Amino acid sequence: MELQHVNVKLLLKEDEGTDLKPLIPVFHGWIQKQGGEELLLDVADYRHVYAGPGVILIGHEANYSVDNTGSRLGVRYNRKAALEGSNQDRLKQATVAALTACRRFESDPSLNSKFVFNGQEIEISINDRLLAPNKPETREAIQPELAALLSKLFAGGEYSVSYRESPRDVFSVSVKSSGTFSAEELLRNLSS
Amino acid sequence: MKSSNSMWKEHLAGQIPEALAREIDIFETEINLKKSGKLDDRVFAETRLRRGVYGQRYDNGERHDGKKAQQMAYPRRNLTKGPNTLYDAPGMQRIKIPGGGLNAAQLETLADLAEEYSDGIAHVTTRQDVQLHYVHIEDTPALMRRLAAVDITTREACGNSVRNVTTCPYAGVCQDEVFDVTPYSKALARFLLGHPDVQNFGRKFKPAFSGCTQHACALANMHDMGMVGVVRTENGEERRGFAVYVGGGLGAVPYQAKLFDPFVPPEELLPLAQAIARVYARLGEKKNRNRARIKFLIQDLGIEKFRELVWEERKTLEHDPRWTEYIQEALQNEEKPLKPAEKLQGTGSEAFQRWLKTNIRPQRQEGYVVATVTLPIGDATSHQLRTLADIARRFSCESVRTTVEQNFVIRWVSENDLPALYEALDSVGLGASGAGTIVDITACPGTDTCKLGISSSRGLAGELRNRLLEKSLQLDESVQNLHIKISGCFNSCGQHHVSDLGFYGVSRKMSGYAVPHFQVVLGGEWGHNGGSYGMPVVAVPSKNIPEVVTRLTDHYLAGRQNGESFKDFVKRTGKVKLKMLLEDLTRPPEDQADHSFFRDWGDPREYTLGDMGVGECAGEVISTLDFDLAAAERQLFEAQIAFENGKAEQAGKAAYLSMLGAARALVKNENPLVTDDPDEIVSEFRKRFYDTKKFFDPYAGGKFAQYLFAAHEKADLQHTEDSARYLMDEAHLFIEASHACASRADALVAS
Fold this sequence. Notes:
The complex is a heterodimer. Chain A is an alpha+beta fold. Chain A has helices at about 25-35, 85-105, 135-155, 185-190; strands at about 5-10, 40-45, 55-60, 60-65, 75-80, 115-125, 160-165, 170-175. In chain A, about 30% of the residues lie in helices and about 30% in strands. Chain A has an 8-stranded antiparallel β-sheet with strand order 2-3-4-5-1-6-8-7, with helices on one face. In chain A, strand 2 and strand 3 form a beta hairpin. The longest helix of chain A has 21 residues, at about 85-105. Helices cover about 40% and strands about 15% of the residues of chain B. Chain B folds into 5 domains: about 5-150, no CATH class; about 175-330, Sulfite Reductase Hemoprotein, domain 1 (2-Layer Sandwich), CATH 3.30.413.10; about 350-425, Alpha-Beta Plaits; about 435-610, Sulfite Reductase Hemoprotein, domain 1, CATH 3.30.413; about 615-750, Four Helix Bundle (Hemerythrin (Met), subunit A) (Up-down Bundle). Chain B contains 24 helices and 24 strands. Chain B is globular. Chains A and B meet through helix 1 and strand 2 of A and helix 4, strand 17, helix 12 and helix 14 of B.
């Protein structure tokens, strides 16, 4: 099974009624700077939509957002363009991208530490129903890949996983680490 | 872009109707031909448009990032998908939903597509379509196959063809309708889709069906072809038929449709549409797209001559059994309720009661209701669409329709199910009350994604909605029932002309800055199928529009006489007083350090028109120019006053003179010796601004200059009420274009 279009969402520390508006100039600033490997294009503002995609930085290869899907606020990396390499490479690439984006938010003074990783919860999904239909066979096939990634990510620490059940949903797994990590620490774990 | 794109064809084999499958295969081949350089840009652009594959803002590869115009470094920068349109730039996919009708499986598919190919949002348009944004062209064949598997086509959703056939969303269940127009609408949509006689238009053609004359639900008066159900008694028997209207349309200059025939029997409806299509294809303008809509053909020919030509054409048509077969087949598919009708028990919460009041409409079938699902600015998430599909299965007979107010309606709900329905909707944020009220604001995409957008219609709509929601419970009912509609430019996709308070985007230069503005259009009529159009009053900076709404509604509330409508209030008050009321809001704040005034709603970048295209208008812009343009505006205002006082001739002449004044202002900027002689002004204007294309709008081209040339040619003709009104609208646009030209010149000098 080839895993493409990996999405990684890092759940943020709960803060009732977090205003996403300050993210808009931040994303415009990222577009001004460019400079990374991905081409950044535009900002889409969906703050008016209930439990929606929030504020999205639209890119050519991938979108970045602070997303409120499922009424759970998180930093999402949505890989759109296909990537070469192994499944493990692709899972790692998306996780690193989400963590890096999260770090940028955490260190941006204009955001006033309002967008900080909660240290434990990550959602990983495959945004392609044909490549990875949400059914037991997919879970079985993906499980070893996920285990390899999560073992490295949490430095061998314990974690629990739960899967979304509805076959209508994209394949998606929620991961919760027993320990607490910063985005910085998780990035270090992955690069070691 | 999706790795699975090539797999969907095989995966869905046998599930797609053969004709649709073939159609999508052809399109996929055309994409491949384009990639290998074997298909001309213009040809491919029209090809993809006819499949609903539309361009989007910045797809020329350039975007102003707030500091400078940035070249977007797409991987295949030399590959295009149309003139000046980069292949890799994301685009918009329009999905045609005939009559707005959707079943549960279709809602689920739309949800999946929004999630996998777009940004997780499906957007309902003012013509009952659904749009997905930021879609890569290489994803479109797979996307189309998945739609086709649930019987949806994107064919002719854009391009010079028959667009979505819109229909009153209450058809079949409305208490006031003459009869259910749905089967006829479906038959017409099916008959015209891909028909050889509708492939050679100079522009698009939009049909609409309504089951009554008094409501707004289908806006038949503002369509190229509007059908309103009527019943006639013949030999003691009631016969169904349609009053057919032609030549309506909003756009830059709105036209009310004219009655073509007061009674067309059903068996004649499809052949009549075919005959109209043939006449339009044969005689309609092809070269100048700005005069290519059927409304211009009818205006030029006169309705009598047009009618004569169509009936002559009708006689030449060979009988086609589909004219009646399609209607008969559609009549078989009558909706049947899922559950027996039961009366509502209990009262519920205050929020539920508010929702009942504004979002529930009793059907003509006793015990059943239609529930409106309000979507903020027409947006729904994938999760909301799936929940709506579940709701449609649980409470309805899967009868969901989109509306021209960018909402959904769920039909055939048993009254007793309302508390459970409300709870289910509210659980996913779809239980907001206020359907059809002042908080239910309509807005086109505007500068968010549209290439033509001048101001942020969605940004303004969001801001107004938030402010009005805060005080909606305290608003007087007369204010609550007003409509607000916003377009990002003069093209009227937000339908601002048929709204109590309408706004369309324009730009002005103030204190050396280009400033986003909205033209305030007041007193349009939403009822009676978009019965009459509002008149522009004054352009106000975007950031002052919330105050415009507050001031106008307060003024209406205080000055309203005997329960008069807002439209009547506007007419009685007159534009002089209304303009005076808003005059102070047209100026920037005294504190020039507040630069937020020079930015648009929801966009922190410094405002620019540069994203619309590269301005060509050169030359020094001096304050005299602004002064002279203001004088032209004043002259136009006088024209409007004369018109209000029933002096059409005076109004028409003044409108013409205002255009001359604006043209002279631009010419004088280059040639200070220009005289007041109209021939000289027009000649100089043509030479300096039209022939050089300096005056050209990035997308409308020379359209507005042609308004001046036409007016100058007809300067000696007497004006009727219609011609004066059209000329005033054209003068408005010409003066706005003059401002834009001046702003572009200024931007060029500054850079």
